[in-house]
Amino acid sequence: MLRTARSSGPYNPVPHRRQGPVLRMCGMYSVGMAYAGTGNNKAIRRLLHVAVSDVNDDVRRAAVISIGFLLFNAPEQCPNVVSLLSESYNSHVRYGAALALGISCAGSGMKEALNILEPMINDPVNYVRQGPCSHPPWSWSSRTTKCVPN
């Protein structure tokens, strides 16, 4: 399924609400893998719609995480896309936003991503606090002293 956007045609169907949440969640990850690294606007729009409208928290989280997979070749766009999702009332969406930033901005050392994650460290929900704690090692893992001066 990875990077099969061309073979999946112009429209990759997402399961409808009447289908089970596990199938819808798998559909979100399928869209993320099919369009991985492409930054396809139609796929991002579809994932954002599901992230704010689905009734199941796991499906919402999968949609937000998949946005990170779509934008890993353009990490400078991800903070703009998920910044409002990181302030969501839904804790699963906030956690997904932290992971999306970690996936798309890995190795980039982007200050914008770290600025979005910083307030999430004091989140009242314990698993949301874990998301920002795992991102900084990803973000700075392949940075050298030449890339990041003292």
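[next item in queue]
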Amino acid sequence: TIKNQEEVLRNLGPLNLCVKPAQFAAKLFQQNNPKQQKNAAPKKEAAKKEAPKKEEAAPAPKKERSAPFSSLPAPKLNMDDFKRQYRNEPSEENQKYNDDTIVDG
């Protein structure tokens, strides 16, 4: 391992591994992460008050989504035919097919 290499030992000195496993300190955890007090009753009342407001408001009109590449021209290469040719034929015939159908640029 790297800790036993000569350069590491010269710079860092001998390294000791963990002697005892880490212990979970619940008290320290509570100090660093205090629980928020729950106010269940006001939340229920607030939700009941907000519900009628939502019903009164008109629903927002939904935007129609268009296909992301609809502005581009249709491709000249039929991908299904290309896959069939590429998988089923020997490489010489594939090269002829590619020369005939694939357009540069």
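[queue empty]
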